[in-house]
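fyi for ur records
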Amino acid sequence: MRVFVVLVNAMSTVQLASVCRTKAAAREQLSKITFGSNPRIEEVCVTGIQKIQNILYSSECYEKSRDLYCYKGIFGNVEQARRAAGPNGLVLPHTI
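which gave:
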């Protein structure tokens, strides 16, 4: 499965702003961005099998040296998202 993510550069890293099923929906979200720089849309593959219909998970790892979270990817299930995020990472659900 492929989805469209809206990304921005913020705090010296890539931050996830939105996850969308269609490019049109991503364009709409992109027009609402009010933070960061270089807002953009990227088409990405969802990693793993989606276990709950219409729910995907973003994974962000914690970088202690910079005290911030960094976007890692989009996952179909929470278990794989947690593994990618690491022990201090962040996993967020997204309804698409």
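The chain has a mean pLDDT of 95. thats all i got for now
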